[in-house]
Amino acid sequence: MKKLSDLSPPASIKLGAFHTMLAVLALFVSGHSANAQVRQDKASMPTGAYIGFGVGATGFKLKKEDFNAIGATTRSFDERDTGFKVFGGYRLNENLAIEGQYTRLGKAEIRYSAAGGLSGTEKYRASSLSVAAVGSVPVTTDLSLFAKAGPSYNSAKSSFSNAALGMASSGNKLGLLVGVGASYKLTDSVSARVEFENFSRVGEAAKGGRSSVTMVSAGLAYQF
Question: Is 162 helix (H, G, I), strand (E, B) or coil?
Fold first, then answer.
């Protein structure tokens, strides 16, 4: 009668099974590492140049003391409009980019009434040319949050529908652009962006009036 030990597999078979298990484990680990690297590569933002555009709602905060038409007895303000922007930049790494932007901030309207039935509207249009540093933080493989800040050269032009109330004028001022937003990758090259931006120091007191302007926008960016 054979002993129980005689029924055990030979040592060579045991060694072969052990090697097979090691090989399977090595394949599993290497495959997991490769998948992790792919996920990491997808999460990384590509460096290089990009361009884009955005459209959104603007809100003016006019310095009311700067807006007084000749002989006006009453006035009312409409400080909401629609603006748009085009931008381009260069991403230095995953977390930092330099971005230039031109923004048409739309217009505010001031309606005046004066003695003798005289009335009219002043239109206050604003635009901005800016450069900003943009800091980004990836949240998922496709979603990232960002904040930006930089100098902006802001222009304002004022015109009247009735020349008896005032004359057209314009003023320029160096201000500050700050903003926050989110970017979502739609494809390897195209991303959707939503942003809130604040443009300070728009216009001059004696040349059309002063204001600050905010903009909430949505747009697209294309990475080359």
Answer: coil
Any residues with CB less than 8 A from the CB of 154 and at least 6 apart, and which? 126, 127, 128, 172, 173, 174, 175, 199, 201, 202, 203
Domain 47-223 has CATH 2.40.160.20: yes
Please state, in angstroms and rounded to a whole number, the distance separating the CA atoms of residues 16 and 108.
82
pLDDT at 23: 52
Q: Hunting for tokens 């003695």 — which residue is that?
A: 115
**Interatomic CA distance for residues 206 and 216, integer angstroms:** 29
CA–CA distance, 172 with 204 (Å, rounded to integer): 7
List the end-to-end C-alpha distance of the chain, in Å, as a whole number: 79
- Enter the pTM of the model: 0.77
Which pLDDT score, from 0 to 100, does residue 129 have?
Answer: 98
- Measure the CA–CA gap between 32 and 47, rounded to whole angstroms: 26
Q: What is the pLDDT of residues 24-50, one digit of tens each?
A: 445 444 444 444 443 444 445 678 999
- Token pair, residue 20, equals 């097979």
CA distance 136 to 96: 6
